[in-house]
Each structure stands twice: as C-alpha cells, then as structure tokens.
Amino acid sequence: MTLLYLVRHGETDLNTKGVYYGWTDDGLSPQGIKQAEKMAVMLEDVHFDTVISSPLTRARETAVIVSRSDPDRIILDERLKELNFGAWEGKHYQVIQDHDKENWDLWVKDWKKASPPAGESFVSMYRRVKQSIKETLEKYEGQTLLMVTHQGCLRIIMCILLNMKYEGYWHFTFDHGAYSLIDVEQGYCIVKKINQKP
Questions:
Q1: Is residue 82 flagged as an active site residue?
Q2: What CATH number did the domain enclosing 9 receive?
Q3: According to the annotation, is 14 in a ligand binding site?
Q4: Is 11 assigned to a binding site?
C-alpha cells in the first residue's frame, strides 16, 4: 500500500493579485508560511519516506516546512510545475481579454490544445504530470509520500488516479496549504481525504 499525501503550496503575494503566474517564481507570503506551518502541525505524526516537490520556490518552501525536512532531502521534479502561461505570466485575465482577445478567445474555445502565446497547452502539461505521477508511484511503491505542487497539477493528478477524462479537471479545487490523501494499492486509488485544512 502506498499513501500519497498531495499538498498545494501556501499562498504567495501574486495569488492575492489574481494574475496568472505559472512558471513565475514567487516565494511564500507571510500568510503562506503560516498555512504551511499549520499543515506541518496537522501532519506531525506522519513520517514521510519520500518528499517530492515542484522546483518552484513556493512549492519547495512549503515542502520543507510541512515535511520538517532538510531542503537537500527533497526531490525536485520539473514536471510538477504549474502551467506555463508564457506571455500572459503576471497578467490579470481582464487585461488579457482587453489586449489579447484573439488568443484569449481561442484558448477558452479550445482549452485542451490551445496555449497562451509562448506558453504551453493543457494537453502538454497533462502529459508531463501523468509521466511524473506514474513514475513516482512505481518507484516508491509501498512508501508514504509527500508531493507538493500546484492547483493545476493537483487537478490533473486526481483525474489520472481516478481514471477521469480531461473534463474531470474542472471538478476539483485545492486550497493553499491544504492536503489530500490517496491510498494506492494494486493499481487502485481510493481518496481518503480531499482538500483538508487546519
């Protein structure tokens, strides 16, 4: 049996501004640090055999706090980064609608395959996240795992583990500093907890 703890990173200052910032590297805000610290207390009785994180600072900082680990112990996986919003990084969706309406409309209409200018598509992100979660579960079978990543990645991971289609992505939301617990046994995944907060 593998126990997979999935955690969304704590809040950042950019989160409060409502802008797209997939690959923009922003650290935790004071509120985000508090969220991670509360999560660490909530999970203090859990021993994590392996800790895996997105390499982006907000996720790495959360992983260190929640796991109470030395930063060098954390495995960084590039495939667990948020969607790359390209030219839209750091911009509010209203600004994009006003100044890049053609690309915005295309992205909304074909959300699976279209991508922001110089960014990546949902399908591209889905493929890398799928590769990551499958390899992780095979390599660390039987362990208690902590994986710290982003909203988009967590939605995709849930779709993959529960054998849902792409559209299942829209049926999940994960709060900052919240965790979900998946029990994986003989290829079957059971959701024990979802979006749990202190």
A1: yes
A2: 3.40.50.1240
A3: yes
A4: yes
Residue 150 is assigned to a ligand binding site: no
pLDDT of residue 31: 97
Please state, rounded to an integer, the average pLDDT across all residues of the chain: 96
Q: Is 47 a catalytic residue?
A: no
CA atoms within 13 A on the CB side of 63: 28
> Is 91 among the domain residues?
no
- With a CB cutoff of 8 Å and minimum separation 6, the contacts of 181 are 3, 4, 5, 6, 191, 192, 193, 194, 196
pLDDT at 193: 98
Phi, psi of 118 (to 5 degrees): 65, 15
Q: Is 60 annotated as a binding residue?
A: no
| pTM greater than 0.90 (yes/no) | yes
Task: Give me the residues of the chain with pLDDT under 50, please.
Answer: none
Say if residue 15 carries a ligand binding annotation: yes
Tell me if 131 is assigned to some domain: yes
How many structural domains comprise the chain? Answer: 1
Asked, for residue 110, whether it belongs to a domain, the answer is no
Does some domain include residue 133? yes
Of 61, 82, 120, 176, the catalytic one is 82
The CA distance from 141 to 16, in Å, is: 37
